[in-house]
Design goal:
5 strands; alpha+beta; 69 residues; globular
């Protein structure tokens, strides 16, 4: 099943951050969210990322992006 996460543009006063939020609350989605996003971010050369609460990923990037996995 294909999932899409959107990067939301935010500014915390020090740097621009982008937040990825999962689109549903299913257990299956929670199980593979972390591994899928980590693998994708590594492939995109994003090294400064933090996963919070299993459903929000803060990524420091300067452009709005959409990822599908």
């Amino acid at each position: 099943m294909c999932k899409t996460a959107y990067f939301e543009r935010r500014n915390n006063g020090f740097c621009k951050t982008l937040i990825i939020k999962r689109l549903d609350n299913t257990h299956h989605y929670k199980k593979y969210l972390h591994a899928s996003l980590c693998a994708l971010l590594i492939s995109l050369h994003v090294t400064n990322a933090v996963l919070l609460y299993e459903n929000v990923l803060i990524v420091r990037r300067n452009s709005t992006q959409k990822i599908t996995f």
